[in-house]
Amino acid sequence: QVQLVESGGGLVQAGDSLRLSCAASGRSFGLYTIGWFRQAPGKEREGVSCFSSSDGNTYYADSVKGRFSTSRDNAKNMVYLQMNSLKPEDTAVYYCAAAWNFYGSSWYLPSLYDFWGQGTQVTVAS
Questions:
Q1: 42 — phi, psi (to 5°)?
Q2: Are 12 and 87 in contact (CB under 8 A)?
Q3: What pLDDT score was predicted for residue 67?
Q4: Which of 44, 99, 108, 121 has the fewest C-beta atoms lying within 10 Å of its C-beta?
């Protein structure tokens, strides 16, 4: 099992950048797939990106491709989400999540993840 804590959110202007961090604890951290999700008020939780523990690849939602990137440092038990060229529609609570299994093309489904952080608020002003 792993425990996850997000940080790095805040209020920014459109076009700005933020880097979110996900601090993890757990001896098996490196065996988990780590995903980033976001949820805006009144909307369903949306998959943003994923760092696969199985193939080492990263995956992104179409809405963030070219703007967001995720990276992982297993030695430090940290996962990062670099967000560039932020838009008002990126405003949401952002969560990191851990999945024991890798679901390939289904990486973006929240129901497939086992552990979640508490979330960090990202607000992008227009």
A1: 80, 5
A2: no
A3: 98
A4: 44
